[in-house]
Amino acid sequence: MAESEQIAILGLGLMGGSLGLALKRSPQSGPVAGFARREETRRAALEAGAVDTVYDDPAEAVRGASCIVISVPVLATAPLLERCLDSLACGAVVTDVGSTKQKVTDDARVVLQGNPAVFVGSHPIAGSDQAGLDAAMANLYEGATVVVTRDQDAETSEPERRICTLWEGVGAHVAVMSPEAHDRILARTSHLPHMVASLLARTVGRGGGGDEVGSYCGAGFLDTTRIAGGAPAVWLDILRTNRVNVDRELGEFARYLDTLREGLRKSDDEALESLLFEAKEIRQSLERASQG
Percent of the chain at pLDDT above 90? Predict the structure, then answer.
């Protein structure tokens, strides 16, 4: 973003708080205003230096801001934006941090119809199983990939360039794709792993036997299920807004699970060994790709 440009962050949890901390660490940063529902969060955001000013009314937070970042669960984005309509500056660009993009983009465009502000969707592929401002980190976005969405076949717009610059300014790498492509790909790389981790935690602790088996859960279980500790409200919205893609990926997972079970039933050690070796090689390949 341009030097001294005012930015408003609506929602000061992990993602919004981390963005505020990162922006305030930059010498080129302009004033940062924030909105949070809870007085405790507003006070903590000021004390942490994540914002310069903070409000209990989102309309006041966005007044005079040329860039607004909405950092709330996906289905809360459009209603929060609607509360700000009368205060949006002409030419303001609005973005979000939601993990699904098609639904939030469609809803934001309906809300902004006839308004001079523009919506450009964002999704930082960064985060933690921890939530809230206490978990915020100034370096959360350094080296992370942030997807910025654009309609298929559309030309690069000035609002899009401004949002890309915002994320690059806090150390992120930007990838541009359509909302549809984002939701299809992230169902495979993010939403499926979370659902599998949740089901694994539920299965291991089934029948109220968590106390009995808990002391035998080692690092493998804890590493594999860490993300299942994410906020249920956030993940419920992700499932609600990406049902078809997540269901498709769960179907693919079930197919591989059936292959594993068939190998066990038939004592087909060759098939089991092949599955394990292929999984190891693919995992290593994916790790290399994720590290650039």
Answer: 84
